[in-house]
Amino acid sequence: MTMMSWIFTAGVRAKTSLDRIGEVMNTVSDIQAPDQPAEPERTGTLEMDAVVYTYPGQVQPVLNQLRLKIQPGQTAALIGSTGCGKTTLVNLFGRFFDADAGSVKVDGVDVRELGLADLRNRIAYVPQRSILFTGTIRENLLWGAPDASEEQIREAIVIAQAADFIDQMPAGLETRVGQGGVNLSGGQKQRLCIARALIRQAPILILDDSTSAIDMVTDQKLRSALKNVRDRTTVLMIAQRVQSIMDADVIFVMNGGNIESQGTHQDLLRTSAVYRDIFRSQIGLDLDGQEVV
Asked: Is 0.70 topped by the overall pTM?
């Protein structure tokens, strides 16, 4: 009787799961590709003009008349308080959902006019959470770019500051990675994910707080090495740490669903109260380099 009861319960659960899978599979996406997609040159330009977005069920827009433009080859950064809309902005560029108003452009064309596969091939995105799967380091790196050469792999792991720890492993690139990267540190996982994105050689690289587990010395080396690809890659960094973005070409400070100010690190220390507050709270220094008491 116990076995029969267990089988019956398992069967009910299986049917419920199958019903849910069916519901998901039959769901029609709100994101529809255009019938005749545009195919602009891959320049690496990112732009938003008067963008408004409100999450379903919410009243207050998370982005409100937001405007920004990032030029080809620039290293740009976004900083702001938690929940200010940084990741929402990134998701709009990838067209995981559409803006309620305004235009979101990649390579000078509204994302709604681009084929979805083409759009997402133009952007190499590294999310906050490192995603690795069971297999070798090489297999993880080649996910999304299976035909990459050894030279491309080497360049990517060197820029991502992953070469040293990979080379120290007895099996090197053939080292097995546990599910989710359980046998790697948080910083190592993030560096592998950045290397994987670099291997794709997309014209746009977006790092969504993707160096949070990397120590500051290694983080600085990584940012310096990224300058080697600026001739072919526009970099957008979303960060919580001021030290991770101080050398960016342009920093956008988000506040209240909009860009409060923009400029270089030194510009913003003079002109942006929001940026100064973030700087002082994290670094503990005033503008003259004196410790804040």
From this structure: yes
